[in-house]
């Protein structure tokens, strides 16, 4: 599995500033893409989507959730337990989830019961879970340590 290595230490600072760095068009039709055979930590996923002219995926309502579900169903995989990074995170203020680099608050969500639990890592690094991923089998969300490597979902607006 090819892994995307990318140092992007400024993202938490950017998120704390709560600025919109991406095209902020929440009501336009968009498409989701899952880069084939590529995994990354959450920061690298953001960077990869941006480098491809896209953004880390936002899921703003039930219609978008259904669209993302279709893309995930079509994604070939041997592991039904896979998770895919999406843009939701609480890197800026713990417990307050926002989308990617747009800073939009997370209003629609589909957290698994008991999530996000902001769990503490067991590797002694003192990291907690600040970045969200969506499950391939249930389409429910869970928060994970942002440094974990997972597949991820980008989005692109159709008129661009
Ligand atoms: Ca969690």
TrEMBL record:
Annotated C-type lectin domain ranges read 27-155
To which species is this protein native? Anopheles maculatus
Q: What is this protein called?
A: C-type lectin domain-containing protein
Which keywords fit this entry according to its UniProt record? Disulfide bond
Q: Name one Pfam family in it.
A: Lectin_C
**Is-annotated flag, keyword Disulfide bond?**
yes
């Amino acid at each position: 599995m090819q892994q995307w290595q990318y140092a992007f230490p400024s993202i938490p600072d950017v998120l704390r500033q709560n600025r919109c760095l991406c095209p902020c068009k929440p009501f336009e039709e968009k498409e989701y893409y899952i880069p084939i055979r590529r995994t990354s930590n959450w920061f690298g996923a953001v960077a990869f989507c941006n480098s491809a002219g896209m953004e880390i995926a936002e899921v703003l309502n039930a219609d978008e959730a259904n669209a993302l579900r279709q893309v995930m169903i079509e994604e070939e995989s041997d592991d039904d337990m896979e998770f895919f990074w999406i843009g939701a995170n609480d890197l800026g203020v713990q417990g307050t989830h926002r989308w990617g680099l747009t800073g939009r608050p997370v209003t629609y969500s589909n957290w698994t019961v008991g999530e996000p639990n902001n769990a503490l890592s067991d590797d002694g690094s003192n990291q907690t879970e600040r970045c969200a991923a969506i499950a391939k089998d249930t389409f429910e969300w869970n928060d994970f340590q942002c440094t974990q490597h997972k597949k991820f979902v980008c989005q692109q607006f159709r008129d661009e």
